[in-house]
Write a structure and sequence with these properties.
Elements (H helix, E strand, L loop, with lengths): L7 E3 L2 E3 L6 E5 L7 H14 L3 E5 L3 H16 L6 E4 L4 H7 L5 E4 L14 H25 L2 E7 L5 H7 L3 H17 L5 E6 L3 H17 L7 E2 L7 H17 L5 E2 L7 H27 L1
Parallel strand pairs: 3-4, 3-10, 4-5, 5-6, 6-7, 7-8, 9-10
Antiparallel strand pairs: 1-2
């Protein structure tokens, strides 16, 4: 059975709760090329995406996302857009005022030192993270913007690495830490992801995160994906193994199949995974009822 999660709002799209598993992809156009980005958004929408993410390196790119959104809305297209932020919290603050969702990476949110941390240094870095989060979360509350806490294997913060290493436990712990920081600010419009290109690491990390959330009574929706899965058969098989295994566990509320191909090519693969797992779940319900 599918794990029950809380419902969150991303623009006109509801994720989690009793809603279908949502399918999304990531644009590969230059966010500064507004015309090409709008055109690709239309292609992705036609292919079946329900959410579209853009790389957002700086303030200019964040502002251009607003222009892309405006161009789409002018044509009556309400596709929710996501700003993918890695290194600059200030860019997240700009993007949060313009699009429906912002993805932040805890590993890059503040600059940390390398090496061992004293308890005082650990707590000081948490304080600096909370100060940076405060402004972003205030904007998100005001604008109704959702946040994805997106933790990646290979880009954990030096602080987390010093205690947990580059491990599934480190991934899950980093995510839980940011959940609690957001909750301290009264912000709960969250989606979570812990990703890796290694399917075993990804599966283990997500299962650990679910266990940690369950232990604390948290039920945020989860975004699933295998980072840089590749192309052709390799990318499809890795995605089927990683995403499919967790969907079969009943875990996952939105997915992206990350292929080294055009974003439109990712969507049919995601649709097949979702359809297969939903069919299996429906059959299980019928068997239980009978």
């Amino acid at each position: 059975m599918r794990r029950q999660t809380k419902e969150i709002q991303v623009g006109n799209l509801r994720i989690g709760g009793n809603n279908p598993i949502r399918i999304q992809t990531m644009a590969n156009t230059d966010t500064n090329d507004i015309e090409a980005s709008v055109a690709q958004a239309k292609h992705c929408l036609e292919a079946g995406t329900e959410l579209l993410r853009y790389t957002t390196q700086g303030t200019k790119e964040a502002e251009n996302l607003g222009k892309i959104k405006e161009a789409l809305r002018t044509e009556g297209i309400d596709l929710p857009l996501v700003a993918d932020i890695h290194f600059n919290a200030n860019v997240a603050e700009v993007a949060a005022q313009l699009v429906e969702k912002v993805r932040i990476n805890p590993g890059n949110f503040v600059t940390g030192k390398h090496g061992d941390y004293t308890d005082e240094e650990w707590n000081d870095e948490l304080r600096r993270i909370r100060e940076k989060l405060h402004t972003l979360l205030s904007i998100c509350k005001d604008k109704g913007t959702a946040i994805r806490i997106g933790v990646n294997h290979g880009s954990l913060s030096p602080r987390i690495m010093s205690r947990y290493g580059n491990t599934p436990l480190g991934l899950a712990t980093s995510c839980m830490e940011f959940i609690e920081l957001c909750e301290q600010e009264g912000f709960t419009n969250l989606i979570l992801s812990v990703k890796a290109s290694n399917t075993r690491v990804m599966i283990y990390a997500v299962r650990l995160l679910v266990q940690m959330m369950d232990a604390k009574g948290k039920n945020y929706p989860l975004h699933l994906g295998v980072t840089e899965a590749g192309s052709d058969d390799e990318g499809r098989i890795k995605s089927a193994v990683g995403i499919g295994t967790l969907l079969h566990d009943g875990i996952g509320d939105t997915i992206r199949v990350s292929l080294s191909e055009a974003p439109e090519a990712e969507i049919p693969v995601a649709r097949k995974l979702v359809d297969y797992v939903e069919c299996k779940m429906q059959n299980a319900k019928l068997i239980t009822q009978n």
